[in-house]
Amino acid sequence: MRRKGNLLSLIPYYIWILFFVIAPILLIVYYSLLDLHGHFTINNYRNFLTSVYLKMTLSSFWYAFLITLFSLIISYPAAYLITKLKYKQLWLILIIIPSWINLLLKTYAFIGIFGNKGPINAFAKAIGLPNQQILFTDFAFVFVSVYIFIPFMILPIFNALDKLNPALIDASRDLGASKITTFRRVIIPLTMNGVKAGVQAVFIPALSLFMITRLIAGNRVITLGTAIEEQFLTTQNWGMGSTISVFLILFMFIIMLLTGERKKGVARNGKAK
């Protein structure tokens, strides 16, 4: 009876998954097999495998990699420092608060900051430097993206560091390991699940960015997300837009598999004991 009750309690969950996860994916796959006139075709998949879309895919992965890398480089030391502070929860909240602000508002704020008449160029003019073209550059796009995604990288890393058993660090130092060796051989491996969770939280959405690419980078940066937006809203080619979406979903699924936690070995060791 108890097992039956548990199965019944999962029915709303399965209904949610069916209508809001599986059904939309199936709908995208269906539209990816249609041309502009609604006829069945596989040309959309052939077109995606051409050099134009392959270059766009590589470009998307490259920018997502840069955004994730810089977010990780900034977030790991920041999360480590926060765990050492007295009011660490307060500092964590202060870092997370900007993520509550609407993405569009933050993007337009950076348009004003990086603009020709923005504070950066005003400061450059005050110290005698020429006007700098910062907006609509690769630097501006990566900078704004990193700023937006940093809270999503810091949070899982902070949780992993905060749960770290300090006795393990003390044991490492008692055995003669230096601070660098302890950090490299003990702290980083034991917090790797937090790093992987942060990479998932940053790399996957960075792969499909489109609004920031339009407003901050102009037409200099073209990603898969930008291509999907263009196919659906500009050319009205829902079939090609759906095809790109199918590949984007596949890429995201592969990334989740590569960065997911692996607990099978731990479970087997636990059973062996």
Automatic annotation (TrEMBL):
The topology of this chain with respect to the membrane is: Multi-pass membrane protein
What is the predominant subcellular site recorded for this chain? Answer: membrane
Any single GO BP term: transmembrane transport
> ABC transmembrane type-1 domain: from which residue to which, for each copy?
57-259
Compartments where found: Cell membrane
GO CC terms of this entry: plasma membrane
Q: Membrane-spanning regions, if any?
A: 12-33, 61-83, 90-114, 134-158, 197-217, 237-258
> Does the record bear Ion transport in its keywords?
no
Q: Which family does it belong to?
A: Belongs to the binding-protein-dependent transport system permease family. CysTW subfamily.
Instruction: State the protein's name.
Output: Spermidine/putrescine ABC transporter permease
